[in-house]
Design a protein that fits this description.
The chain contains nine helices and seven strands. By secondary structure, the protein is an alpha+beta fold. The protein has two domains: 100 residues, Ubiquitin-like (UB roll); 137 residues, Fumarate Reductase Iron-sulfur Protein, Chain B, domain 2. The strands form two sheets. Strands 2-1-5-3-4 form a five-stranded mixed β-sheet. A two-stranded antiparallel ribbon has the order 6-7. The protein starts with a strand and ends with a helix. It binds iron/sulfur cluster (2 copies) and FE2/S2 (inorganic) cluster. One iron/sulfur cluster binds next to helix 4 and helix 6.
């Protein structure tokens, strides 16, 4: 028999002076294969036309639907209601600017991170536009591809104790991005340059290694391995400076 799900959903419009943060309750008949994406769209269509939430791809690719699902960060489009109890509490991700209800501005945060860490390949020579392609060793290309799978959903930040305490902490997402560019032989930056960017407590030395990020990364990235690797490499830079 289908369950009747009870949704408790955070509602608040920060730009509306009349709005108060609150949880509102909605009830919905569960159907086979129902995801939170389907449920939220039904709630918006039938009960709460002004409910805000973000979705683009519905396939775990764009990263825009991350939220706290019964207290745990996750992608709403990849979460089956069948995996949850009858009462489902949905909150916006912490750490990011609230737009309204379940919608947060991860894009603004990720853009600032990108500018801060300069997450683009730094070439030491002008690119030769007449050359069709620069061949790369297949294994290395595979390694960089694996490091490039982050969808910038923000789940690792939401699961991170350090990020709750340090508003400028780059998080696993930031450290992982450094690992991606460090692995790229086209990038001419060295460890001294990376140390200048994340060699402090808002960077790789602020991480407490409690694994929250890795536990909740929906792309199963090896965040801990990369954090440990980058920390070891940059610790050497710190010793050189002292
Ligand atoms: S291991 Fe580090 S980056 Fe990951 S959640 Fe813990 S403190 Fe945050
Ligand atoms: S590292 Fe994982 S959890 Fe963090 S933003 Fe990227 S995909 Fe999301
Ligand atoms: S809608 Fe794109 S990841 Fe969920």
């Amino acid at each position: 028999m289908n369950r009747t799900l009870r949704f408790q959903i955070f509602r608040h419009h920060p730009l509306d002076p009349q709005s108060q943060p609150r949880l509102e309750t909605y009830r919905l008949e569960e159907s086979p294969g129902m995801t939170l994406f389907i449920a939220l769209n039904l709630i918006r269509a039938e009960q709460a036309p002004d409910l805000n939430f973000d979705f683009v791809c519905r396939a775990g690719v764009c990263g825009s639907c991350a939220m706290l699902i019964n207290g745990r960060p996750g992608l709403a489009c990849r979460t089956l209601t069948a995996s949850l109890p009858e009462t489902i509490t949905l909150l916006p991700l912490p750490n990011f600017e609230l737009i309204a209800d379940l919608s947060v501005n991860t894009g603004k945060w990720m853009r600032a991170l990108s500018e801060r860490l300069e997450t683009w390949v730094h070439l030491n020579e002008e690119p030769d536009i007449d050359r069709l392609e620069a061949p790369m060793d297949a294994d290395l290309a595979e390694q960089i591809y694996e490091l490039d799978r982050c969808i910038e959903c923000g789940c690792c930040l939401a699961a991170c104790g350090t990020a709750q305490m340090r508003k400028d902490f780059v998080g696993a997402v930031g450290i992982h991005k450094i690992a991606r560019f460090r692995a790229d032989p086209r990038d001419c930056r060295d460890d001294a340059a990376y140390y200048e960017v994340i060699g402090d407590e808002d960077g790789v030395f602020g991480c407490m290694s409690l694994l929250g990020c890795q536990d909740f990364c929906p792309k199963n990235l090896s965040l801990q391995t990369q954090i440990a690797f980058i920390r070891r490499k940059l610790a050497r830079q710190g010793w050189k400076k002292t």
